[in-house]
């Protein structure tokens, strides 16, 4: 019980005193998760839109594949990315192993199906009368799509937040691809794994609280956006 | 509506700000990537030594702490530039296979068998061989790292010496698959025996404020010596590995300054490693 309370106290201490190792991990986490979320949005949003907006042959099997990808274990992605970017791997020349860039690649693979599936679901769940109304008002194809996108902006925002939460909290990819290198690729989650491994539970709990605080701040700022 | 759009823009701007340093950080000068064992990292030795190395040589060193087995694999695949490991037999095989070039002995400590202070199997003061035989006969709980690390390799050799196969499938033989400190903590939770290097054990003791539930029970056999070495990769196998920088690291570690620093690295007043570079 003691170490839980000690962890709480320590969490505030770490943040308040600006502990450099903690801030380095916070920074690494924010950098890499923001980067991978943006990349997965760039790829997932258009695809999700196409999947949700248009009807075509083979749509259902495609959705099934996509839904299966939602369950990809992070350690498997880690293993896959590791194999590809290791210097003996096909992408070895990019020198991505043990870098934040490498982690970002893995996390993008993790977030991409989430963004795509959620975007597609949002578009599908759009009010079916909207399109008809727009057509009857004489809107062109471009206008229709633009208006539809504007209407589902909160759904897309939700997809982004979900993806962000997932990549920020994963540990398998960061550990395997990043190597948990202090000052460089040590994220909050790999730091927690390390501290727990060392038996420093209070440190682990403190870092966990830091992570929850960040997640809370992200969600708070988004709900603020939504209200406006 | 207008205000919302503006906020979206601010949001994107914020994201850009966090990403720009990511790309900027990739352009830097001399960097050395090392794979090492959990003991050098867990004990805090590297946190203590490496900033001084960077200061002296202007080489930024990054390390990933894994077991010696995986560290050797990382070197074999050319994913790192230099290794700091502790499994002499495996290291020699590694060099013979054409993966490693120079091997330089840097420091040593010793392995010990630790267990509950009450010592349920009564192994205290016995030789390693006797102790393991007693543990096997009594089916006392024994925790192994089971991760092919240097410690795990040594432990397997010791079991081998008892003349019976590794108790891999026995209920009382638990393989944690984790680093040394994690395994010691698991042994404490289960009140079992385990084998560790002395440096990590002292670190564990210091975390418990000097009164740890687990104690050293078996020590002192010549076979328990634990030699750490720096290994450079063979440029023929890994032309892209930074052989020159790896040699600078190796020289520095074997040099007088680092050797003195290693000697002075203590916890609870006890040295964790003994320098022995020639």
Molecular structure report:
The complex is a heterodimer of chains A (228) and B (278). In chain A, 78% of the residues lie in helices and 0% in strands. Chain A has 228 residues and is mostly helical. In chain A, helix 3 packs across helix 5, helix 4 crosses helix 5 (100-124) and helix 8 (153-169) packs antiparallel against helix 11 (201-227). Chain A is globular, with a radius of gyration of 21 Å. In chain B, the strands form two sheets. In chain B, strands 1, 2, 3, 4, 5, 6, 7, 8, 9 and 12 form a ten-stranded mixed beta sheet that branches. In chain B, strands 10-11 form a two-stranded antiparallel sheet. Chain B has eleven helices and twelve strands. Chain B is α/β, with parallel strands linked by helices. In chain B, a hairpin with a 2-residue loop joins strand 10 and strand 11. Chain B is 45% helix and 23% strand.
Strand and helix layout:
The complex is a heterodimer of chains A (228) and B (278).
Chain A: H1 2-16, H2 20-53, H3 59-69, H4 74-85, H5 100-124, H6 128-136, H7 141-151, H8 153-169, H9 172-178, H10 188-197, H11 201-227
Helix pairs in contact in A: 1-11, 2-5, 2-8, 3-5, 4-5, 4-9, 5-8, 5-9, 8-11, 10-11
Chain B: H1 2-24, E1 31-36, H2 38-42, H3 45-57, E2 60-65, H4 68-76, E3 82-85, H5 88-96, E4 100-116, H6 128-138, E5 142-144, H7 150-161, E6 173-175, H8 180-190, E7 193-197, H9 198-207, E8 214-218, E9 225-233, H10 243-254, H11 256-264, E10 266-267, E11 270-271, E12 274-275
Parallel strand pairs in B: 1-2, 1-3, 5-6, 5-7
Antiparallel strand pairs in B: 3-9, 4-7, 4-8, 4-9, 4-12, 10-11
Helix pairs in contact in B: 8-9
